[in-house]
């Protein structure tokens, strides 16, 4: 794909490098993704479904160039949480009727990628 066909914000991912195509002919190659150091299993407890979620662990020094730092890319996923007896919040209409009185959705952050950034 020619550089002129790409928008200013387009990235071409090739291995661990991202080619950032600018409006001028100059292009900078920089690391895009840094490998996670580990995966961690998070136990949300018995009152959650799913109870376990996998999240990544990113180390700041894992980028190929010294100017970049490996950072976490978080994503908020929705999981079911059993309602407490004193929970008087409105039932979630997106849940099936049979679950609305006992369960609610909550957002839980998980790390889905490690990316190099300034």
Features:
mainly beta; 2 domains; three-stranded antiparallel beta sheet; 48% strand; elongated
What does this protein look like?
With 118 residues, the protein is mostly beta strands. The protein has two domains: 1-31, no CATH class; 33-117, Cystine Knot Cytokines, subunit B, CATH 2.10.90.10. Helices cover 0% and strands 48% of the residues. It contains no helices and eight strands. The chain has strands at 11-14, 17-21, 27-31, 38-43, 48-49, 52-57, 69-82, 103-117. The strands form three sheets. The protein has a three-stranded antiparallel beta sheet, with no helix packed on it. Strands 5-7-8 form a three-stranded antiparallel beta sheet, with no helix packed on it. Mean pLDDT is 78; it is low at 1-17.
In short:
InterPro entries: Cystine-knot_cytokine, Insect_Hormone_Regulators. By secondary structure, the chain is mostly beta strands. The chain has no helices and eight strands.
Inertia-based shape: elongated
Low-confidence stretches: 1-17
Beta-strand percentage range: over 45%
How far apart are the termini?
27 Å
CATH class of the largest domain, named Mainly Beta
What's the layout of helices and strands?
Layout lengths: L10 E4 L2 E5 L5 E5 L6 E6 L4 E2 L2 E6 L11 E14 L20 E15 L1
Antiparallel strand pairs: 1-2, 2-3, 4-6, 5-7, 7-8
